[in-house]
Please model this.
Amino acid sequence: MEKQELIERYFDGTLSPEEQADVRRQMAGDPAFRAEVELHGLALAAIRQEATARLRARLAQKGRELDDTATGETRRRRWWSAATGVLLVAALLLAWWFWKPAAEAPTPQPPPPVPEIQSVPPVQTAPTPAPPAAPARPAVADTRRLFAGAFRPYRDDSLDPAVRGTREKDTPPERIERLYWEGDCRALLALFDSLDTRARNDDDLQFRRANCLLGLGRSEEAANILESVIRNDRSRFVDQAYWYLALAYLHAGDLRETKVLLRRISADSSAARQPDARSLLRAMD
Amino acid sequence: MGKPLQFDTETIILAIGAGKTDVMEELYARYRSDFFRWAGKRFDAPRQDFEDAWQEAVVAFYSQVVSGRLVALQYDMRCWLFAVAFRSLLNGKRKMKRILWKDSADLIARSDAILIAPHPMDVQPEGHGTREMLQVAMRAMSSQCREMLEQRYFCEKSIGEIQGDWQHSSANTTSVMLSRCLKRLKELIQTARKAKSS
Model:
């Protein structure tokens, strides 16, 4: 049996008791072999840790959907309760109005004398001062110009599909990666809707999708996705996602959120986009 | 109590074993609010703690099934999940105010029944920063490698099943690709370890 196979089977628990004892003996006498076994154990732990995190993220997403549905139902129930209450009170008031005893009816009073109406010359009023001007807000055109100057769809060499090993046929997630690399965002978005749940929960793919949406001007959808990518914290593009979320806010005209995010990136010396964030903040000011 | 599952326990176990992970969301959703109510009577704790415990129970169920350590349940699934989540709450919150009610899930959780059989060879990442280091290494892998490694070593799929999923021409191709991915992961871990120790 080869060494790697032996180690794999050791971790699988499929070795016989004698073989297990043999592995332990080798580990005790050979530090290099021991290091290899430990490294294999760490690799398995890494895989399981990441997979568990992904599964939990899927469940958490499902939980949020369930909570949102429940909140919606509660709101509807509250609305109907309030509406029913208002109708009931109105019905009671009407009933009281029609059925109140005649004795309680107010005695008719003679109408008050109508004062003589005099002709009043128009008053010359001072011109009304104009209301204070609202704080100057950059026009939509300004934010879009800033956005256009700052936004470039994310690219790095690792995204190049050619870097990967050769395969007979692209899987749908790989087609997404390829379409992104080729810049065919419309095809990417169309294909994305047909992905299975697991692929749709891949935040690396979602990051590409958000970039495409942003490039097509669909900034609110992009912002929702990027917020989710950041919240889940399982994508290798999380660091970049902050920058693109700031751009999504900028495109949507939410300058306050844009600045909050840009300041955060600017203050983080490890952020890849620190120079870009500083530059954009200066441009905004 | 939540609605009964569309599938019985055996069907769910078979579905998970066959790689149909969508059933996990179904399982998670079916008894979730039921568990929150049940746990709320026993623990004075934030809702997030119940959520964490519930997720942990569902993930534990999945891990037990895919590793072949759980092939049938001695109790009904709701009880099993509640008992595992209950234990998770107990472990995490020993000082938490607790009111014990007696029902079947309580009894299972406090009995000596082995709910979760640990894998004898499972490595628990220990030491400061080890989890983060492993996370960094995994996330530096290509998504294709990550996915294949998870299918093999977390979902415990056979080489043949992975070959079918990825439409490889032969099992040998799959095997070679898995070996390369695993080797790459080990290199990344070693690099991260060196960086951590220096």
